[in-house]
Amino acid sequence: MMGCSNPHPHGQIWATSTVPNEPRKEQESFLAYQEQHGACLLCDYIKLEASGERLVYANDHFIALVPFWAIWPYEILVVSKRHLGSMSTLTDEARLAQADILKCVSSRYDNLFQTSCPYSMGFHQQPTDDEEHNEWHFHAHFYPPLLRSASVRKFMVGFEMLGSPQRDITPEYAAERLRQAEVKTAK
Ligand SMILES: [Zn+2]
Ligand SMILES: [Zn+2]
Q: What is the pTM of this model?
C-alpha cells in the first residue's frame, strides 16, 4: 500500500455529495463524446486497443491496457468489455472475470518488480443520483509508483509538478514488460 508507514493492503469506499474532480472530468468527456459521436468513448477506445501493442491482458469480460495518456510508468486501465455503468450490474460470470483480471494485473506488478508491488487502484462508476447516466462506462485505474525496480520509484516533482507530467518509458514498452511478467501458475 502507498502513503502509509506500515505496508498493508486496505480498501475504502468513497461516497460524496458531489462528484469529485477525476470522475467529473471523465463524465464531461463521456458526455461530450456521446454528443459528438453518438457513441461511448470507452467502448470505442477499447476497440482501438483490443489487439494492439498497449494491451496487457484480456478475458471474456474485461480488458487491461496501458492507456496512451498514462503518466505513471506502469499505469493500467481495466475496462469492462460490455457497456455498463457500475459493478452492481455485472453478471455472476463477469464478476468472476473481474476477479481474474484484477489478480492478473496485480500479480504482473509483483512479478515485474520482484516485490509485493505498492499501488493505488480504484473503480470509477456512474454517479448514484436519480439520472440514468447512460454515458458512463465502468472501469478501474491502477497507479503503481515504481519505475525501475522495487526501490527506484517515480517522483512527480519539478517540471512535472509545476508544468506537466513527463513519461519515463512509453506505454507500449510498459505493456510489453507487463505481458512478459505473466504469472506462470502450476496446474
Ligand atoms: Zn461504453
Ligand atoms: Zn476513471
A: 0.92
